[in-house]
Amino acid sequence: MGKNNVTPTTSKQADGNLCRHLQTAAKKTPKKLAVSVQKKAFSQLTYQEMTFSELHHSSDDIAHALTEYGLKPGDKAVLMVKPSIAFFCLTFALFKAGIIPILVDPGMGVKNLKQCFEESQPDAFIGIPKAHLARLLFSWGKQSLKYIINVDGPACFGGKQLNTILKKYPRTKRFKIEQLKIDQLAAILFTSGSTGIPKGVEYTHHMFEAQIKVLQKDYRIKSGEADLATFPLFSLFGPALGMASIVPDMDASQPIKANPDYIFAAIERYQCTNLFANPALLSLLGQAGKQKQLSLPSLKRVISAGAPATISSIKLFSEMLTQDAQVINSYGATESLPISKIGSKQLLKTTSITDQGGGICVGEAVKNVDIKIIAITDQVITQWDDSLALAPFEIGEIVVKAAQVSQAYYRREQATEQAKIQDGPIKRHRMGDLGYLDEHGKLWMCGRKAHQVLSTHLKEPKAYYSIPCERIINTHKSVKRSALVNVLINEKVTPAICIEPQSNISQTSLFSQLTELAEQHTQTQGISLFFIHKKFPMDIRHNAKIFREKLAQWAQQHV
């Protein structure tokens, strides 16, 4: 798909630090808003604001104090602070000082968090009191931690308060930003673990720079805009782009529980031009907007990522937008984001193909991204060869190469070996997703590799893919959502579909209709086993990723 024009990362290239963007914004637009954090106080919404100049100087103060306290470039620091002014100041301070922030998703669970800290071996733990209490209770990072720093509260669980360190080591001159080789480790971002064990993704300044360029060129985000930031990591791109980050009062790990009124109020107050919303939040806001008959004329674009948003939720939300604004569906992963995108107007034209089992269109590759499809295999592929690439419309595993693609998992050599393919000076990333490229180079998603069902129940083995099968079944009016799983019957792998119904309905009648529907499509022919499950287990963050592994175990018990 296009020529291989991806810039390789080598230590011979120029030094850099992504904080140069904040430094530039502080010089060019010192008094412009950089961050605003919304809080509900009693019956009113309040906003704590910070300009680019204030953010730059405050992060300089913290960077200086941390280095004087003993932290040095290359040290690793867990950062467990809620989205706040402190979160922004601390993150940029760590980057400036060359200290590697370890960012984890609190929604991944205590067991996974402990494993993340054991793997990353942090030198410092910077967090709010609640995080420090959990650190003690569950012995997080006990073997490696040298510095314990408390934010927004007393040091009642050991360590020092950030304010105490700042007072002890006041900055008297400009802080010199640490210049790093662009392929040096800049941050460790752990995957959520919603489709497997969480892994620490190695981020370099080169990756961050590439992501910033994509947001500028492909998404056309400009300095001076305002972003309603509902995801902490994306919110950090705001100041780097010269864009104000407006943080609503919500639990970023559970967006489905957000209060739409708070978000609408923040958009209205700052006339936000950009909104990042995952599928669950997009649906929630669309429903609330319809009830209130709201319009959001200031929004130029809405970026949705994390999981495919439903067509119905996109249509509903789009009713609040102007004719020129679109919901942009972004495809990628923590290891490689963004990879491709498609606007809602174009996406809506593909619904008939999706409903016929053609997969979900996730658009064309963003600039300088090379997408290929390879045969489905669990085997390690050490070296890339163009002969590995499949022809258009052949379903296989999606493989990507780009400057924003991570080259390794932190201290996970086996996982890196399984997910990466050496291609010249850099590595391609195996997405773990299945799909195909059409004749125009558009990418179509067919589901996770782990969710395909390789059936042996028929005369000839057959592969079933989650998205094509489920989208066909979902066209039935009585089906809210469905999930493809496999069960063993007489030692033969048999495809089955779990159904979450819209309402109470006769199982006999529904199953008969679904069997007939399945036989009408090549993708679902041979599926005749269905189960009713009244409430699917879903991931917390996106409320769109079905835990098919749990459903498969449940279905096996009901065979």
Automatic annotation (TrEMBL):
The residues covered by the AMP-dependent synthetase/ligase domain are 23-410
| GO function terms (MF aspect) | ligase activity
Determine the domain of life of the protein's source: Bacteria
The record's keywords, sorted A to Z, are: Ligase, Membrane, Transmembrane, Transmembrane helix
Span-the-membrane segments of this chain are 85-104
Q: Does the keyword Electron transport apply?
A: no
Which is one Pfam family of this protein? Answer: AMP-binding
Which protein is depicted?
Fatty acid CoA ligase family protein
Annotated organism of origin:
Psychromonas aquatilis
